[in-house]
User: Fold these one by one.
Assistant:
Number 1:
Amino acid sequence: SAIRPPKPTIPKTLLNPNDESQVRKVEGKEIKFNNLSKLYWPEDKVTKRDMFNYYYAVADFILPYLKDRPLSLNRFPGGIHGQSFYQKDVKGKAPDWAKTFPYSTSDGEPKEYLVGDDVATLLWMNTLGCIEINPWFSRVSSPDNPDYCVIDLDPDKHHFDKVIEAALVVKKVLDSIDVPSFPKTSGSTGIHIYIPMGGKYDYDQSQLFARIIVGIVNKIIPKFTSLERMISARGGKMYLDFLQNRPGATIAGPYSLRPKPGATVSMPLEWDEVKPGLKMKDFTIFNAIERLKVKGDIFRGVLGKGIDLETAILKAKELYP
DNA sequence: GCTGTCC
DNA sequence: GGACAGCAACGCCGT
DNA sequence: ACGGCG
Ligand SMILES: [Mn+2]
Ligand SMILES: [Mn+2]
């Protein structure tokens, strides 16, 4: 029979429930785990140890979405209510076995992103206080060509039910032009809708496509959605964020924990689950693993064959002149 | 959260 | 060992 | 040149 990738499995927990500091070899790579009883989500009594055990358990499911992607680190060393900060440059700081991706900022300083690879890299990133995972939309082998386009629904003050309503309009528009789409909760307030691009186009083209789609959606539901970047110009409406499709920009990836009360997870959904009654807190560190056991990874189409942009844009122009 | 420095 | 200080994004675009 | 934005 054909060789196929091994089915994802869920291992036993990595860390014992007692010791505050533990050292483990993960696939031959040594990682130190400290302050394991620190309450990262105090309201939910979820500790840093729980976070490591979660990511270790779901690693098989998450890693395809991290492998070969530069990672923006969003660090919460003091837990979800502590001071947080971003970090991109890990030059000279990552373990020697970790992969990195060189880049330079406008001032010309040579720097290096951490690059997603294996479970050791994932857990080392977690030791820095990275609760959530923010991977690029493209991989180092082709950094200018995203694997997917994202439509990011940012509700501001709107109820989650309105996000669901907007998501279903996005779905209807994409269906009408025969473009596949994959929704997930953000774990914070919104919904992310991914469209597979297959690395065939660049970020400008991907963003232009997202702009076309949200333009159509906004024409259908102008009363509560906006395309304005400036918050003050949105008039309290939900932001249909297409600008996130640009080099170096990120959103929390699938199965990522979020630094929010409830210890929510950015959870991939079936479209038939996107309906009134769906709640952000339906998916948390407490039930995500059980759901993965039952449903498996329902998001992999995102990394599959990309759409044909010319055909899709033509159909859109035809149907929505 | 980690590293290096200083006592 | 313990107490510290220092350090940890980025580019676009409107004004 | 600065600040808002994600
Ligand atoms: Mn968002
Ligand atoms: Mn956004």
Note: Chain A has a mean pLDDT of 97.
Number 2:
Amino acid sequence: MTEPTDRKVIDLKGLKVACQECSLRDLCLPVGMSVQDIDRLDHIIRRKRPLHRGDYLYREGDELHSLYAVRSGSVKSFSVSEEGEEQVLGFHLPGELVGLDAIHDSTHHCSTIALETTSVCEIPFDALEELAQEIPGLQHQLFRLMSRELQNDEHFMMVLGKKSSEEKLSNFLVSLSQRFSSRGFSGTEFMLSMSRNDIANYLGLAVETISRLFTRFQNNGLIEVDRKFITIRDLEGLRRLAGPQCGGHMGAHRG
Amino acid sequence: MTEPTDRKVIDLKGLKVACQECSLRDLCLPVGMSVQDIDRLDHIIRRKRPLHRGDYLYREGDELHSLYAVRSGSVKSFSVSEEGEEQVLGFHLPGELVGLDAIHDSTHHCSTIALETTSVCEIPFDALEELAQEIPGLQHQLFRLMSRELQNDEHFMMVLGKKSSEEKLSNFLVSLSQRFSSRGFSGTEFMLSMSRNDIANYLGLAVETISRLFTRFQNNGLIEVDRKFITIRDLEGLRRLAGPQCGGHMGAHRG
DNA sequence: CGCTGCTTTGAACAACTTCAACTTCTGTGG
DNA sequence: CCACAGAAGTTGAAGTTGTTCAAAGCAGCG
């Protein structure tokens, strides 16, 4: 499981950054762990070569081998119903862990693909579990991360069930803005790596509705839309539209 | 934390059953643990006196002290928005664990109340975490339970986002039926412990819609409704209405 | 008995979807 | 480098589903 040699090789290629030096350290698994413990974690993690747009991280039905932490880029999780209809479950940005929902029965119930060029850290689950057994801080952080996912889901369930289309989309945008900010990117200018279709699917709306909302938001001076590039002109206004408790970090589910 | 004396006293009152003898053993925390380990778990669990309808297990904003396993009866989790609007997050039957979403920041973000006379096992989280550090099987089962919640949420998100009102309600009923069955109760005749309002709120619909659907389902010979008592007359028909992959055990979220 | 709260039912209304047509973008091959 | 085909996005008009509002029916309970 541990591959120090391999890691060094990848390091030379510029793909590898140890957890210790990773800018996502404070958002990811290592939170609350000692330097020594992070080093142990580091040794089970495999840095993979970057994925291209459309590459699968894993597919629905696959056995669970590893969890994945997004390092750069973004991924989308979705499942496909028997009739072939896709359901988008979430979008994941750097520092977010995907695959947690597969632990239950060691099987992935959704697929995850890269939305753009994306690099991830692969974390073999068996090794992670063993390590968590030895490192209390790691066990705790795993519990915390899973619990946070549950909280996110709660918030999202409320958005899906109780909000109008306007509120849904503004919630989505505010959430993206916040997540970009906390990762050191601009919270007011960013690129949507997903299609309108994906957004619509995710929010339980029709593509046409999303399109109309984008134009409406733009006309109201809330945002500026240029294809996939979004500029937020009035974050406070968006927040107001999103309704109260819109703090909930939405858009990240499952993987 | 461990209160053997107290436990014996409660035992005499007929409230206490050790995990070992509990009929919910195979649905709850002890899954996959050895007899000895279950005994250790048993020692940190506090059996509380029964709650009455409307009693709070914990409130939104409370600090996390314990997780709770429903032993009998049922509870409802919900949060209240700033405008005072309630959002029902889930209903929990015996054998289900509530409070997991509070681990993230040691704070409950929803309230949980008893829908009827209900007894629960209180599991102090600190002690549980310590024990999980020593008992690999317990750590694993905790990961599994949290992961299952994530999977449930996924399924529910799909129901909320993509399904019609008919599909939502039939999904709900099928899920209840399954959960009652696997707990040894009748899967075709049961009492709804929650109000129409709660169901509507949970499914993101209006009360009136739920009411109309109940009458429609009854007219179509799918179910028989007598106040809170439901008799399922055509489970297969309901399943068909619920759409594919309706297996997902729905209705249990958050707590 | 007469509240009070929950449920049911009807009718009008609104929000969002669907359908259809058109535009813009993207990328591929000549 | 341009042309073209297919995908993605936008826009308008009509159609549905579910909501809202209003009112009446019913069970439980002091």
Note: The helical segments of chain B are 4-12, 35-44, 125-134, 136-162, 165-182, 196-203, 207-219, 235-242.
